[in-house]
UniProtKB/TrEMBL annotation:
InterPro entries: XPB/Ssl2_N (IPR032830). Residues 337-444 form the Helicase XPB/Ssl2 N-terminal domain. This is Helicase XPB/Ssl2 N-terminal domain-containing protein.
Length: 643
């Protein structure tokens, strides 16, 4: 097992024992962040460490908080490395990548990464904010709406063809639309209340973030929910985003595989499905705007990071946390440029909080490093439907523009203000009585409190804000209406204050703290999940005892464990059988010398023998009862059982 020196020091600072630290390296390499059972860990015993020691090591790691334990409904326990710690541990074990320079220098660009998933999320959020997402009786979005959303998304379904995505109604939703909706749900940006709507408090916080923090939140979702329950594939997805992989440098996929095999994170030949996923993962990252794809001189798959997400608190090979995470973010460019031809040029650094309102006043023409919008009478009329007047548009453009707004555009907005919005067609709820006596009772009860507006002998208008109260009044008067009226208010585009603190004023740590996608105690809300659904199980807080780890320990003679003694052949055989059952070591006194060994198996015969892995030589020997003088059963010692 190869591990950087800093790993042990860092794990020790977290409270792990020496045995726990030895166990930790084996768990990281063998299981990555995937769950495992306690009995499975015994299979990792090697180099003289026993299965019993590994079991004790696991529980030591649970106590120190490095491992988490959950319990299935039938009581079976699962253990796994807590999500924030896994990338740190993996980075400690891995070392530098040494690609073949000649091959890398001859990589040609095959496919440039798309503009970025944050823009896809933004445009779909804008559409939902203006239109909502109505649900059919089958619980799916209308087909026309799905097609409309697909036209907003630059991520292509073909970018996801090699990723095994599992989500409901696959026959209805194309993969790219499903991924965008999944991310919006998982990040808490949309919620379902009959129809799907934007979650305004969460969106207000999200729009404050710069693009790199948005991408980091998305990348965490991919790592958490888009990787199959395969330790090798999880290692791969995390490894290519460690500090050992540099942004802007080409890497051949075959070099990455060799690098990971050198650190025992990939073992044996890869299955076809694994290599397909590895390539598919890069294709997906390209579609999401994280990487460019290339081809080596011999057609080998290659990639380079365009903007590598930095998983916070990542441990360097020196064993120290990378504190660059706490440095302030680069300032966010706050201004756009309004042109005399009514076009608006928006640099990539302009905050999405500012773009949110711009999407209402102007039509988006292109979305790229420099996005282009155009304001028109039609777009201004559209904004009016969401309670923004041409005067509001002028004030917004004046505030957000780097050099004000041209005089001709200001004049046009003033003219449109005189033409638009002077009349309106509004929906009202009508309360109609069948007779004058009922109408008079209602009128007297209202008592001129303006909850009702009488428009005829038998008719009243009920204001929307008073509708629920009016139902109570009618029930109180024994005038319960025959038919319940469902008033579906027009969707009004949420208004966020562009003057809110932008994330460029925050440190990365503070920005991630307000980020809805930051890992927290709540369960995943998305509908795509490819790994093991650990979050559905109950957290196991009950500590295990020595008797739990070594069943029957209270029934054996205590002298077996306390001291070296000579035993009759039958008793010695029973002691060794117990050592085999517990997968623990024995201590032997042989011709005046004391040594330790790990029993492997009993050999039948007359006399019987036991195959023992002698320590520390790791030489296997077949010993009979007459080959030793004294014998002792060894249970692992660990601070886990002390206090």
């Amino acid at each position: 097992m190869i591990m950087q020196s800093g790993t042990f020091k860092w794990a020790e600072e977290l409270g792990a024992s020496e045995l726990g630290m030895r166990t930790l390296g084996l768990i990281v390499q063998s299981y990555a962040g995937q769950p495992f059972k306690l009995e499975q860990i015994e299979k990792l015993a090697r180099d003289g460490i026993s299965g019993a020691e590994l079991r004790i090591g696991v529980l030591s790691l649970v106590k120190s908080g490095i491992l988490c334990a959950v319990k299935k409904t039938w009581g079976e326990r699962l253990y796994f490395i807590t999500a924030p710690l896994f990338p740190r541990l993996q980075a400690c074990i891995l070392g530098p990548v040494y690609p073949h320079e000649e091959a890398v220098n001859r990589v040609s660009l095959e496919r440039e990464g798309r503009p970025g998933i944050e823009m896809d999320l933004f445009r779909v959020l804008v559409w939902i904010g203006q239109n909502g997402l109505l649900i059919t009786a089958k619980g799916t979005i209308h087909q026309k709406t799905i097609s409309r959303l697909g036209g907003l998304i630059q991520l292509a379904a073909d970018d996801l063809k090699h990723i095994p995505l599992h989500y409901p109604h696959k026959e209805v939703y194309p993969a790219n639309t499903a991924v965008v909706l999944d991310l919006l749900l998982a990040l808490g940006l949309i919620e379902r209340r009959g129809s799907w709507t934007v979650n305004e408090p969460a969106v207000a916080e999200w729009l404050r973030l710069p693009s790199d923090v948005m991408r980091l939140a998305v990348y965490k979702q991919l790592l958490t929910r888009y990787i199959p329950a395969d330790p090798s594939l999880q290692h791969y997805a995390y490894a290519i985003s460690t500090e050992h992989i540099q942004e802007g440098t080409w890497y051949l996929l075959e070099d990455i595989i060799c690098w990971m095999k050198g650190y025992h994170m990939l073992t044996g030949p890869l299955a076809e499905g694994q290599t397909t996923f590895m390539l598919g993962w890069l294709e997906m990252l390209c579609g999401l705007g994280f990487v460019d794809l290339g081809l080596g001189e011999k057609g080998q798959a290659a990639f380079r990071w365009r903007g590598k997400p930095k998983l916070e608190g990542q441990i360097t090979t020196a064993g120290k946390a990378d504190r660059n995470f706490e440095q302030p973010l680069a300032p966010v460019e706050r201004k756009f440029y309004v042109q005399p031809d009514f076009e608006i040029l928006v640099p990539s650094g302009v905050s999405y909080l500012l773009r949110w309102e711009l999407e209402l006043f102007a039509q988006g023409l292109t979305y790229d490093a420099m996005s282009v919008y155009k304001i028109s009478r039609e777009s201004t009329a559209h904004a009016l439907k969401h309670r923004r007047t041409p005067a509001d548009a002028a004030a917004f453009l004046e505030q957000g523009s780097a050099s004000g707004i041209p005089a001709n555009l200001r004049s046009a907005l003033e003219q449109w203000g005189r033409e638009l919005g002077r009349t309106s067609i509004e929906e009202r709820v009508l309360l109609r009585c069948s007779d004058e006596e009922a109408a008079e009772r209602i009128n007297r009860y209202d008592g001129g409190q303006s909850k009702l507006e009488r428009i005829g002998p038998l008719d009243f208008i009920v204001h929307e804000q008073d509708l629920k109260e009016m139902y109570k009044v009618l029930n109180h008067l024994d005038l319960t209406p025959r038919k319940t009226v469902h008033s579906e208010s027009a969707i009004i585009y949420p208004r966020f204050d562009p003057a809110l603190q932008a994330a460029g004023d925050l440190s990365v740590e503070e920005a991630v703290e307000i980020n809805p996608g930051h890992p927290g105690p709540r369960e995943p809300q998305g509908w795509i999940f490819s790994g093991t659904a650990i979050h559905i199980y109950e957290r196991d807080e009950e500590p295990l005892s020595l008797a739990d780890l070594f069943p029957g320990s209270e029934e054996i003679p205590q002298a077996w464990c306390k001291e070296l003694r000579s035993y009759h052949a039958s008793t010695a055989k029973a002691l060794i059988q117990q050592a085999l059952a517990w997968r623990t070591k024995i201590r032997l006194g042989i011709r005046g010398k004391v040594t330790e060994g790990l029993p492997i198996r009993l050999l039948n015969g007359n006399p019987w023998k036991v195959q023992v892995l002698m320590l520390p030589s790791l030489q296997s020997q077949d010993l009979s009862h007459s080959d030793w003088d004294t014998l002792q059963l060894l249970l692992p010692e660990d601070p886990y059982f002390k206090g």
